[in-house]
Amino acid sequence: MKVGDFMKKVVVIDSDVSLKDAAKLMSKHRIGSLVQVKGDNILGILTERDIVKNIPKINHKMSKVMSKKVLSIDLNEPLDVAAELMAKNKIKRLLVTEKGKLSGIISATDIIANSDCLNDFDFF
């Protein structure tokens, strides 16, 4: 199975909002992350964990705490490759791209929920 079969819609924003406003957006959309973009360029990803770790800075801009080193995977890659990439980099979310453009997001939860689609693979 391919990553594209399991990816979810990603919520993107093109402005540098406060952590408070980002938290409101996540709550409204019932999601655990936001991706900041400028045109087709991915600037970073902000997760629930980033917000919780930075509660004292709740009025700061998300760009101050978001992860700017964002890993992605092509939607045609096998699900196993996504799982391996997450495990090796100790991350819970991967942005999904198609021809280099942001297309969606896949999380560790998505992979676990579909673990029967994984091949026998040694991640460690």
Task: Tell me what the structure shows.
This protein has one domain: CBS-domain (Roll), CATH 3.10.580. The protein is of the alpha/beta class and 124 residues long. The chain has four helices and six strands. It is globular.
- What is the CA-based Rg, rounded? 15 Å
Q: Which percent bin holds the helix content?
A: 25-40%
The tally of structural domains comes to 1
The backbone outline, from C-alpha atoms, is globular
> What profile does the largest beta sheet have?
3 strands, mixed
Distance between the termini: 21 Å
CATH level-two architecture? Roll
Tally of DSSP helical segments: 4
* Secondary structure: number of strands: 6
Q: How do the strands of the widest beta sheet line up side by side?
A: 1-2-3
Structural class: alpha/beta
What's the CATH class label? Alpha Beta
Order of helices and strands: EHEEHEHEEH
Roughly what is the average pLDDT, rounded to an integer?
A: 90
Low-confidence stretches: none
Within the CATH hierarchy, at the fold level, what is the topology?
CBS-domain
The CATH homologous superfamily is named: CBS-domain
Give the helix/strand layout:
Elements: E1 12-13, H1 19-29, E2 33-38, E3 41-47, H2 48-53, E4 72-74, H3 79-89, E5 93-98, E6 101-107, H4 108-113
Parallel strand pairs: 1-2, 4-5
Antiparallel strand pairs: 2-3, 5-6
